Amino acid sequence: MQKNINIKNKRARFDYEILDTYTAGIVLGGTEIKSIRLGKASVSQSFCEFNDKGELFVINMQVDEYSHGGHYNHLPKAERKLLLNKKELKKLHKEVSTSGLTIIPLNLFINDRGLAKINIGLAKGKKLYDKRETMKDRDNKRDLSRIKKSFNQ
User: Fold this and answer.
1) Using one digit for the tens of pLDDT, what is the confidence trace for 92-136?
2) Whole-angstrom Cα distance, residue 88 to residue 71?
3) What is the pTM of this model?
4) Furthest-apart CA pair in the chain: how many Å?
5) How far apart are CA 99 and CA 140, in angstroms?
6) Mapping DSSP to helix (H, G, I), strand (E, B) and coil, where does residue 32 land?
7) If DSSP codes are grouped into helix, strand and coil, which group holds residue 51?
8) Cα separations (Å) of 86 from 82, 89, 121, 132?
């Protein structure tokens, strides 16, 4: 079993401009947390959505079935409730409904107390030219670091 679990959404910062971040708890069953502790989860294709009661759920988060779960195993792509303060939920709901922003998971981790937490971000989708700009900046930084490295040697 791995000690440090940190499952990242690598496409999040490429596809979205992150405006604000929050740390939320997740409501999980017994076999779900065991599977996450083994590192068998993915948040790459997931997003967050409010239901009719104003509760926030993460949709399309993949948590693989626990290998020793048997009859009481969980569904891999079930909706999972996120736990935030009421004030944070109201603020997020207002931002999503009025300005057309979206909430995406950034990474899933186990904290020092052994609880599963998820970092979510209030995000605005990038256009194609923004993505090209991000790739160009990354390439320029890489080239500059190569030049500095060769110059110092």
Assistant:
1) 999 999 888 999 999 999 988 889 999 999 999 888 888 888 889
2) 37
3) 0.80
4) 62
5) 33
6) helix
7) coil
8) 12, 5, 17, 38
